Amino acid sequence: MATEKRLSARRKHTLKGCMLVVAGNLLDAEANVKAKERETFLADKCPPVELPYSRDELLELCQKLHEQIIISEDERYGIEFKLDMVLNEVRDLNIKIVDLRGKFKRPRLKKVRMSADAMLKALLGSKHTVNMDLRANLKQVKKEVKEEDKQLRDVGDWRKNIEDKSDRKKMFDS
């Protein structure tokens, strides 16, 4: 056995439970920090509105709000434009990486029954005039007939063969 001490199942379970509790507390703290940051950001960007009672003051307030909206829209447009540029650059770099690797998905090819002549004609076009007979290039092998095979084939009269076997059977019986 190994010299290391192994944790029991109960110990592992309690450790996992403690880790989950700590992780939950950290997530809650992070959510609280984000909420506070959001509140401070909104307080800075959007101060509480005090509505004036006169028409001139209301028009002034509307003009200020309109100017703030224009400024925020300009910022948003600039950020979106920069984001689009960065995304396009990332896409182009990914394409370059794939090109440099030389790896791409090869399409699945359909099986086509085609003779060698038809294939050469398709590849070379009208230049191809030589017919390729693949069977003509095969090596010719002559079959030698052995004497034993010849004897087995030339058994002769079947009645004679049966009589020979019956004599052998009589020898074993006696």
UniProtKB/TrEMBL annotation:
<dbReference type="InterPro" id="IPR038077">
    <property type="entry name" value="Troponin_sf"/>
</dbReference>
<dbReference type="Pfam" id="PF00992">
    <property type="entry name" value="Troponin"/>
</dbReference>
<dbReference type="InterPro" id="IPR050875">
    <property type="entry name" value="Troponin_I"/>
</dbReference>
<dbReference type="InterPro" id="IPR001978">
    <property type="entry name" value="Troponin"/>
</dbReference>
<comment type="similarity">
    <text>Belongs to the troponin I family.</text>
</comment>
<protein>
    <submittedName>
        <fullName>Troponin I type 2a (skeletal, fast), tandem duplicate 2</fullName>
    </submittedName>
</protein>
<dbReference type="GO" id="GO:0003009">
    <property type="term" value="P:skeletal muscle contraction"/>
</dbReference>
<dbReference type="GO" id="GO:0005861">
    <property type="term" value="C:troponin complex"/>
</dbReference>
<dbReference type="GO" id="GO:0060048">
    <property type="term" value="P:cardiac muscle contraction"/>
</dbReference>
<comment type="function">
    <text>Troponin I is the inhibitory subunit of troponin, the thin filament regulatory complex which confers calcium-sensitivity to striated muscle actomyosin ATPase activity.</text>
</comment>
<keyword id="KW-0009">Actin-binding</keyword>
<dbReference type="GO" id="GO:0003779">
    <property type="term" value="F:actin binding"/>
</dbReference>
<keyword id="KW-0514">Muscle protein</keyword>
